[in-house]
Design a protein that fits this description.
single chain; about 190 residues; mainly alpha; 434 Repressor (Amino-terminal Domain); two-stranded antiparallel sheet; about 55% helix; about 5% strand
Length: about 190
């Protein structure tokens, strides 16, 4: 792995651009290799911190950049954090960025906070609904298993007592199946346990 010089005489963006160029990668080839947008790459290589997304996502982009060039990821992230802090850019997670976001809307969607809430809300509502159903069954002394068994038995007895008529395609004839004998249901239900 290539490593950062201990003296660090330059800015992070200059260092990254120099490492990319030393690896023989143009901006276009590097963007294809990493999946970074050209605007994001330019913001990273020019230390344009206001153009970067929220800090957590920006750190991910710097990690991606470092791995693509086999650099020390931890040192790159530490350098980024130090320079961003020195530049006076807000480091709160709600700093969504500027121009790079406008050119890369997928990053804006990743940084927005509302994607996990619908699932959490749905799970909470289902838990509340299950609680209400349980309380109602207890209050009115309803056993859901017995109610379902009774419905199945009712459906089975109705289907067994009804004759089945089938139309033969192309002939217009109707065939009657059933000999009029009562048959035992397919599933027997024992109500006593």
């Amino acid at each position: 792995m290539a490593d950062i010089d201990d003296k660090q005489p330059q800015h992070l963006g200059e260092y990254l651009r120099g490492q990319r160029q030393a690896a023989g990668l143009t901006e276009e080839k590097f963007c294809q290799k990493t999946g970074l947008s050209p605007a994001m790459l330019r913001a990273m290589e020019t230390d344009d911190y206001p153009a970067l997304p929220a800090q957590a996502y920006a750190r991910g982009f710097y990690t991606l950049y470092a791995r693509a060039l086999e650099l020390n990821c931890e040192r790159i992230i530490d350098w980024y954090n130090k320079e961003r802090h020195q530049a006076g850019v807000a480091v709160e997670n709600n700093n969504i960025g500027g121009t790079a976001i406008n050119t890369a809307p997928e990053t804006h969607r990743m940084a927005s906070a509302g994607h996990a809430r619908p699932l959490t809300t749905l799970l909470i509502l289902l838990a509340i609904l299950a609680f209400i159903i349980t309380v109602l069954c207890w209050r009115f002394e309803i056993n859901p298993v017995m109610a379902i068994r009774e419905k199945i038995h009712l459906v089975q007895t109705r289907s067994m007592s009804r004759p089945h008529n089938f139309r033969i395609p192309g002939t217009g004839k109707v065939t009657h199946q059933g000999d009029g004998k009562k048959r035992a249901p397919l599933i027997t239900l024992n109500s006593a346990h």
